[in-house]
Amino acid sequence: MDPLSQGVLGASLSQSLSRKQHIVVAGILGLLAGMSPDLDVLIRSHDDPLLFLEFHRQFTHSLFFIPIGSLVCAWVLHPLIAKKRGLSFQQSWLYCTLGYSTHALLDSCTSYGTQLLWPFTNERYAWSTVSVIDPIYTLPILILVVLATFKRKTWLARLAFLWAVMYPTIGMIQRDRAVAAGWQLASERQHTQIKLEAKPSFANILLWKVVYETNDRYYVDAVRVGSTVKTYPGQSVPKLDVNRDFPWLDPNSQQAIDIERFRWFSNGYVAQDPDDKTRVIDVRYSIIPNQVKSLWSIKLSPSADMKSHVEYHTHRDSSPESREEFFGMLFD
User: Fold this and answer.
1) CB count, 10 Å around CB of 80?
2) Do 81 and 25 meet the contact criterion of CB atoms below 8 Å apart?
3) What does the alpha-carbon distance between residue 299 and residue 204 come to, in Å, rounded to a whole number?
4) CA 40 → CA 3, 53, 300, distances in Å?
5) Transmembrane ranges (predicted)?
6) What pLDDT, in 10s, does the model give residues 224-271?
C-alpha cells in the first residue's frame, strides 16, 4: 500500500486507543511507525536487481517482527517526539506497536504479496481486496485523522479505523463476485482451469482483472462488478516454458536461477513477452485489466555469461488511449 495510506491507518489505530491529552503525539507515533516497515525498500543491490523483490514485504512485514520493529521505532521516536511531551517509554512503545501492527495486514489486502509468517514460511499472502493506491480508501481516513488531531476527539479516529476495516470487507465481496464471473467466462469457453484469481484494477474496487490458468495458457479478462456484472473478454498468452522459449539458456546459469526467483515472486504467473522474446513478464498486472501488457518484467541476454543477472524493468503505459480505454471500462 502507498505510504500515506499506511501512515494514516497507523495513526487512526494509535489515536483510537490513546488518551485525549496524548492524541496528537499518539497520532504522530502511529503515523511514522505505520510507514516504517517499508524501509525495507532500501535493501537493494546494483549487481542483483531482483534482491529487492525478495526482501520487500519480507522480515519487516512479518507478524512475528512487530514487537522488534515497533521497539526500534520507539527507541528512535521517543526521545525525539514523545519524551518532551510527558509520555513514558512504555506509552511510546504501545503507540508505535499499534501503528506498526497495521502495516503488514493492510499490505496483505493488496495483491502484491506479503510474507506475514516469515521466517516459518516465505509464502506471500495476498487477499486482493483493495488496490495498492485507492483514494476512496485513503481520503476518508486522512480527513478523520486530521479532524481527530485538531479537535482532540478519539471517536473520530475510531470512525477512521472503522472505515479502514469496512472498505476491504466490501472489497472482499467485490472480489468474490469478480471470481464468480471469471469462472463463468472460463466455463463458457469450455476451459478446464488450474487456478483463477481476481485483482482490483488501479485505484478502485469496481473494475477487476481476472487471470486464470489452463494447462498451457493464461487468460486475462476484465470484470466490472457494479449493480450488475459486466465482462470485457481479453487476451491470452502461453505459459512460460523455459526450454521452449529460451533454448539457448544454460539451466545452471544465474539468468536461469533468476527466472525461478521471478516465478516465485509472480506466484507462478509468468510468460514470455509477446512483444519482446527476451523478456519474462508477470501476467498478473497491467494498466488495462484485460490486456497482457505487464507492469514489470525481467530481460535476458543470450550473450550474458554464467554469472550475470537478468535486468529488471518496469513499464508504465500512460498514453491517452490507454487512459480512455481504462476509464471507459471503469465508468461503463
Assistant:
1) 10
2) yes
3) 31
4) 13, 10, 26
5) 63-81, 93-113, 125-148, 155-173
6) 999 999 999 999 999 999 999 999 999 999 999 999 999 999 999 999
